Prior knowledge:
Largest sheet: 4 strands, antiparallel
Shape: globular
Order of helices and strands: HEEEEHEEH
Structural class: alpha+beta
Number of strands: 6
Number of helices: 3
Radius of gyration: 12 Å
Distance between the termini: 5 Å
Strand order of the largest sheet: 1-2-3-4
Strand content: 35-45%
Amino acid sequence: MTQDDFMFRINVRQPLEFCFRGKTYNLTYGRDEEGDYIAFGRLYETPGRYYSVGELLNEVKIENSYLKEVLEDL
Length: 74
């Protein structure tokens, strides 16, 4: 998946589920008192909340790589 494709999915708020090295990850959306957020984490675990795409791409690590580095392998 290219970063442009990933950004498009975020902009239209399309949920995303993918497998990476045998583990399933889930990306969804929500809203709380702080505003809109992106929820990301392993399937069936409590996801982290990220309030911007930049925060998501720069803070989330999958295995030993940041999410932005893993996107091309999805």
